[in-house]
Write a structure and sequence with these properties.
- This protein is mostly helical and about 80 residues long.
- Helices cover about 60% and strands about 0% of the residues.
- It is rod-shaped and about 70 Å long.
Length: about 80
């Protein structure tokens, strides 16, 4: 399985939203079963934290589908010519 930026995006947002949902569930369960509620809340918080960390990982990945725009001009060493 190749780890593409699109797949990382899916894991990031699934982890964040799913983790926050489980965190809320854990806080709700905590009223009746305090120990189980804390365990569920911690697992949800860790999942959300994983998503936040993966945002940093995704920001450092290069997208192979993205091609440089030839209209953008030269490189940093060569100045762009204006018509």
């Amino acid at each position: 399985m190749k780890l593409t930026p699109a797949r990382v995006d899916v894991v990031v947002w699934s982890s964040i939203y799913g983790g926050l949902l489980v965190l809320g569930l854990g806080l709700a369960v905590q009223r009746e079963l305090p120990a189980a509620g804390w365990v569920i809340a911690v697992v949800g918080g860790l999942a959300a934290l994983l998503g936040v960390v993966l945002i940093g990982v995704r920001s450092r990945m290069t997208d192979p589908a993205a091609k440089p725009d030839p209209r953008a001009g030269g490189t940093a060493d060569t100045p762009r010519r204006t018509p």
